[in-house]
Structures are given as C-alpha cells and as structure tokens.
Amino acid sequence: MTISFLIQDRLFEFGRAVDSKQFHRLDAVFDQDAVGIYNGANSHETAAQLIAAMHHNLGVNSHCGVSQHNILNVQVVPDGDVAAESRAYFYAIHAGVGAYDGQLWKTWGEYNDFWVLTAAGWRIRERRYTTFFSEGPAEIVTAKPT
C-alpha cells in the first residue's frame, strides 16, 4: 500500500474515533509525543493532552452529542520513507445537548499534519488545525459541562 493510502486511512480513523466517542482509538492516529497547534496556539504538548481535550470537549459528559467529521481533499507529500506531510480539509458538525439541545455548531477548516512512521504504523507528530469559518455556538464543544 502507498504512503498516501495509509495516511488517509489514519485520517479517516481519526474521524471515526471522534464521532463514535471512542477516544482511546486515537492512539492509533497520534504519536505519543504529538503536538497540537490549534488556530495558531500551541494547545497540546503530548497526545495524551490532545486526546484528553477531545474527550472533555466532545465526550459523553460534554455539551456535544452526535458529531460527524468529514475529511476530504487529502494531499500527502512523503519526505523519504519515514516522514510525510498531509493537508486535508474538514467539515465537522456537532449537535448540542443539555443547555445547547437543538443547536448545531458547524466548522470548516484544514488539518495540516506532520507524520512519522513508527513501529506501529504512521502517526501524527504535529497537527496544525486551522478554522476557516464556523457557524453556531462554539460552546457546544468548549463550554464546561454543568
């Protein structure tokens, strides 16, 4: 299988893991030393921090119910045999629950990921997440549950 196919598969696994709220599956996407840079801010310095934030913002005790992350227009540029960079657009929709019941938060943007080949397969070492625009209350994924 090509590097592009294997990396696209990991990107799609990210969406499936998040939408099923099976955040433990993200260990198969992020390297343990992964750094997350969200909208220009160094938000997470390890995969554990990144996964914990996703669990907090999107998990069963959050204001986020059902979500769907669509990942498309994937471009992969290999850097030799053990590194690569990918860019992929995303469109994600999140249904609010609790105080946000009946509301949606929609966001469009880009994942710019830097990959390394580990003994377990391709993993993201750095994710640069950029929001192009969004609609609805972002508090669905950022408000602390009451």
Sheet/helix structural class: alpha+beta
The biggest beta sheet reads: 6 strands, mixed
Strand percentage lies at over 45%
Q: Total helix count?
A: 3
Radius of gyration: 15 Å
Instruction: Tell me the helix content.
Output: 10-25%
Mean pLDDT metric: 94
Succession of helices and strands: HEEHEEEEH
Quaternary structure type: single chain
Q: Detail the poorly predicted runs.
A: none
The total of beta strands comes to: 6
Distance between the termini: 47 Å
Name the shape in a single word.
globular
In the sheet with the most strands, the strands line up as 2-1-6-5-4-3
Write a concise keyword list for the protein shown above:
single chain; alpha+beta; six-stranded mixed sheet; 6 strands
Task: Give structural notes.
This protein is an alpha+beta fold. 23% of the residues lie in helices and 49% in strands. The protein is built from 3 helices and 6 strands. Strands 2-1-6-5-4-3 form a 6-stranded mixed beta sheet. A hairpin with a 2-residue loop joins strand 5 and strand 6 (121-135).
Layout of secondary structure:
Elements: H1 3-19, E1 30-38, E2 41-44, H2 47-58, E3 64-78, E4 83-96, E5 104-118, E6 121-135, H3 139-142
